[in-house]
Design goal:
Layout: E1 7-13, H1 17-28, E2 33-37, E3 53-55, H2 66-79, E4 89-94, H3 98-110, E5 115-117, E6 131-136, E7 140-142, H4 144-157, E8 161-164, E9 168-174, E10 177-182, E11 185-194, H5 200-203, E12 212-222, E13 231-236, E14 239-243, E15 250-255, E16 260-261, H6 274-287, E17 295-305, E18 312-315, E19 322-326, H7 336-348
Helix pairs in contact: 1-4, 1-7, 2-7
Length: 365
């Protein structure tokens, strides 16, 4: 390969959920761009796999996410209208809890529709005493592996290059350019985007970001009850649990709270956890009367968490042409297209009308 073949307008390090979207955003602008990843497209080694991800508009975590979500919904539909499945979402929890109060606050601030439910409206769920249930019609889910693959395929169709199987050894700024070192040689670009998920601290060691990687478990139970046609989220005294619309006799479930700390995501095991198994089995038995106790499948993935569970999206300090995101804290995939767009905006000096200040890394300095 000649030197000119190794020079680009923009390079993306990590082409999982967010990186694949950034690669597509860069390619769709006509930039000569390269995506690099250790693993093949839509792999199961990070945080963007497991068949599905919920997407919600009335965001209980922080009302400032809602404008980003509106843009994300638009970008998902522009990418491929078959991806975002608008099935609605049910939330169950205490009136003054984090989820219900947060959903209602963001819906009120941004004038979003939320319907109140009676327990008799949703007999497939057990609504605990002193809890309420509400419904968001704009919620839904995304087929996560297909989304990642679509971003990469459409990026390549727009002219992007994608290299997988390449180990990233490091990167450095060289004036107005950036040099990326890999075990397949060096590459240079005018701008760099880093979206490394659980490997963020490896590629951003000098920043000493306060990140923690947790292993999370995903479960599929047998379910032939077609009343489970919505995504759902429970807030209970002992944890937060969520699930997806059932299909093909399967219902996917997981616990959003908790997690097992991981020191090295590359070598971390993917085995089931006896404690997690019991927690999810007890949840099914007590709150989901239409779901059978038979577990059909188990997988694991990673949450890369910040201390406040909000994202980090920022320039690398002192470098106008290097942007990164990290610490999506288990709720970031639904934002993939807008975060990809924002990362390319930051790295190329393109203005955005979206407020991202609440995601600045300055809050940890």
């Amino acid at each position: 390969m000649t030197d000119i073949d190794r020079s680009y307008d923009l390079i993306v390090l990590g082409t999982g959920g967010i990186g694949s979207a950034a690669l597509f955003s860069a390619a769709s602008r006509g930039l000569k761009c390269l995506g690099i990843d250790r693993f093949p497209p839509a792999h199961d080694r990070g945080s963007s796999h497991g068949e599905s991800r919920l997407i919600r508009l009335s965001y209980f975590e922080h009302a400032d996410y809602v404008p980003l979500l509106r843009r994300s919904y638009t970008l998902w539909d522009e990418l491929d209208e078959s991806l975002l499945q608008r099935t609605g979402g049910v939330y169950i929890g205490p009136q003054d809890g984090e989820i219900i109060a947060g959903v209602l606050a963001s819906a009120n601030q941004h004038k979003l529709r939320i319907d109140k439910l009676q327990a008799s409206d949703i007999p497939q769920y057990v609504v605990p005493e002193h809890s309420v249930a509400i419904f968001e019609p704009d919620a839904g889910w995304l087929p996560v592996e297909r989304c990642v693959q679509t971003h990469i395929d459409q990026a390549k169709s727009a002219g992007a290059e994608h290299r997988h199987g390449a180990g990233i050894l490091g990167w450095e700024s060289q004036g107005d350019a950036v040099l990326v070192k890999t075990d397949q040689g060096d590459f240079s670009a005018g701008a760099l985007v880093i979206a490394a998920g659980p490997w963020s601290t490896t590629l951003l060691p000098q920043l000493k970001l306060p990140l923690r990687v947790d292993r999370k478990h995903l479960h599929w139970f047998r379910c032939h009850d077609d009343r489970y046609r919505n995504g759902f989220f429970y807030e209970l005294p002992h944890g937060a649990f969520y699930g997806f619309p059932s299909s093909n006799g399967r219902l996917k479930l997981a616990e959003h709270s908790g997690g097992e700390p991981v020191t090295d995501p590359l070598t971390a095991h993917r085995n089931r956890s006896t404690e997690d198994d019991k927690r999810i089995e007890d949840f099914v038995a007590e709150y989901l009367p239409g779901v059978q106790s038979e577990r059909l499948e188990h997988r694991s993935c990673f949450y890369t968490r910040t201390p406040d569970d909000d994202f980090i999206l920022d320039h690398y300090p002192g470098l106008h042409n290097v942007a990164y995101t990290a610490g999506l804290s288990g709720h970031g995939y639904k934002f993939a297209p807008v975060l990809g767009e924002l990362l390319v905006d930051l790295a190329t000096g393109t203005a955005s009308n979206l407020d991202t200040g609440f995601m600045s890394s300055a809050r940890f300095r």
